[in-house]
Amino acid sequence: NCKKLALAPMVRAGTLPLRLLALQHGADVVYSDEIIDHKLLKAKRVENKILGCIDFVLPSQEVVYRTCSMENGRNVLQLGTNCPERSLKVAKMMEQDVAGIDVNMGCPKHFSIQGGMGAALLKRPDVAESIIKNLSQNLNIPVTCKIRLLETNEQT
């Protein structure tokens, strides 16, 4: 049976509490909300012994990403990026704590498009291909991408 139930990436909704709730209600895989590569590169991996989880924390003490053993093997980080090298640096940093990396190539938000990320990558297939190839050839976890349908099947 290939049917899988997934909590898809959603802006400001893919935090640990919702991911855990989705898993408790039958989800097979859960996605974080999009986290930009620049932000993750500033974060430090910290073992949070009080909560029993792994946090990626900025110098300001903001937790950028949090995971715990209850979602091991089922949590996918959705990454906002426009750079093959930077995306790999982040993915390597996160590889031991996530089940996969999903490159966001579908977000139409102004911030993402303006930064050459999200749906903007669909207009630059060479960059999109380079990101996916670089990640898939250098990671030991699955790499996927979320895309947006374009005007025609051929364009998509």
Task: Summarize the entry for a quick read.
Helix content is 28%, strand content 26%. By secondary structure, the chain is α/β, with parallel strands linked by helices.
Helices and strands in order:
Elements: E1 6-7, H1 16-24, E2 29-31, E3 35-36, H2 37-41, E4 44-48, E5 53-57, E6 63-68, E7 75-80, H3 84-94, E8 100-105, H4 110-114, H5 125-138, E9 143-147
Parallel strand pairs: 1-2, 2-7, 3-7, 7-8, 8-9
Antiparallel strand pairs: 4-5, 5-6
Helix pairs in contact: 3-5
Defining traits:
156 residues, alpha/beta, six-stranded parallel beta sheet, three-stranded antiparallel beta sheet, 5 helices
Q: How does this structure look, described?
A:
This protein is 28% helix and 26% strand. It has 156 residues and is α/β, with parallel strands linked by helices. The strands form two sheets. Strands 1, 2, 3, 7, 8 and 9 form a six-stranded parallel β-sheet that branches. The protein has five helices and nine strands; from the N terminus they run βαββαββββαβααβ. Helix 3 runs parallel beside helix 5. The mean pLDDT is 94. Helix 1 (16-24) links the parallel strand 1 (6-7) and strand 2. The longest helix has 14 residues, at 125-138. The chain has helices at residues 16-24, 37-41, 84-94, 110-114, 125-138; strands at 6-7, 29-31, 35-36, 44-48, 53-57, 63-68, 75-80, 100-105, 143-147.
The secondary structure category is alpha/beta
Q: What is the subunit organization of this protein?
A: single chain
Question: Main β-sheet, in a few words?
Answer: 6 strands, parallel
First CA to last CA: what distance? 28 Å
Overall mean confidence score, pLDDT: 94
Give the radius of gyration: 15 Å
Topology order in helix (H) and strand (E) letters: EHEEHEEEEHEHHE
Beta-strand segment tally: 9
Helix content: 25-40%
Task: Catalogue the unreliable spans.
Answer: none
The amount of beta strand, in percent, is 25-35%
Number of helices: 5
| Shape descriptor | globular
